[in-house]
Amino acid sequence: xxxxxxxxxxxxxxxxxxxxxxxxxxxxxxxxxxxxxxxxxxxxxxxxxxxxxxxxxxxxxxxxxxxxxxxxxxxxxxxxxxxxxxxxxxxxxxx
Length: 95
Known about the structure:
69% helix
């Protein structure tokens, strides 16, 4: 489907999809912030220096990184869709 072939109904459907993707991206960022505020993720430098950085800390940092990556990927999808249909003004994946 070319840009010129996208009608109003399709734009409405696409905008619903965009809204869902943004909601999921924002939820992932909130999960990331919550995970990174846990004790396992606090004091990384101290824990590494004193050999107290164990499996639970490693797993918590990986879980946080996964949520941040999901956040960025979902916003990238939003940007690609908006570029395709000729819209702009979407939040930044680095937010």
